[in-house]
Amino acid sequence: MSATTGSHRASCRVSPRLPWCLRLLPVPVSRFHPTGPVGIALSTGFAAGLCSGDRFLTEEDLRRSGVPAATAWDAAAAGALDSARTGDGFRVYIRNRTVPRYPDDVLQVAVPGSAATDWLAHPDTFTTIDAHLSTILGRRPVWFAPRVGELYAGTRADDGLLAWVENRFRGAGLDAICPDPVRWVGGFPVADTAPGPVDR
Questions:
Q1: Are residues 180 and 118 in the same domain?
Q2: What is the pLDDT of residues 106-150, one digit of tens each?
Q3: N or C: which end of the chain has fewer CB within 10 A?
Q4: Quick one: 133 and 177 in the same domain?
Q5: Does residue 15 lie within any of the structural domains?
Q6: pTM score of the predicted model
Q7: How many domains does the chain have?
Q8: Mutual orientation of helices 69-84 and 123-137 as an angle, nearest 10°?
Q9: To the nearest 10°, the Cα dihedral for 46, 79, 93, 128?
Q10: Domain range spanning residue 102?
């Protein structure tokens, strides 16, 4: 993968530096149990989870820490951005990925310090990476997050690419996130479930 540097675009609100991280979850927040992991609604089909290491945080964890969920969410995003920060922006790794029956290359995206898919779990991180890839692609990307840690960006989705992403999703087991194209809408991930090709 080659490293690229995106500009400082995010405006994470000031929040305490906590050792928590974001996790993009493929479930609506309405499916979270009140005593289970914290879930912050992102869109109809996505929620943000908060983790400490590999363990999801619960409301009880946050209550004991004295930190509200929104503050913890902002702190996790600030931590993700700090992990990728360089002197002149944010480090983003990209490489071309050839997909069978798709005429264009798709860019596989990675970031230091966390799974790239988790950058879709907060408006500051998603806006930062979306703006950077928009500059590289010359237009707003169509995103694909078939499984945890696998994030791809392209300029359009056609049947060949959609079939490839669906295959990656089906083979992901518990790490599966979304088989559909994902759009940036006001900083939030929205799955494009309409049938047929997507061209942005």
A1: yes
A2: 999 999 999 999 999 999 999 999 999 999 999 999 999 999 999
A3: N
A4: yes
A5: no
A6: 0.86
A7: 2
A8: 40
A9: 60
A10: 2-7+89-199
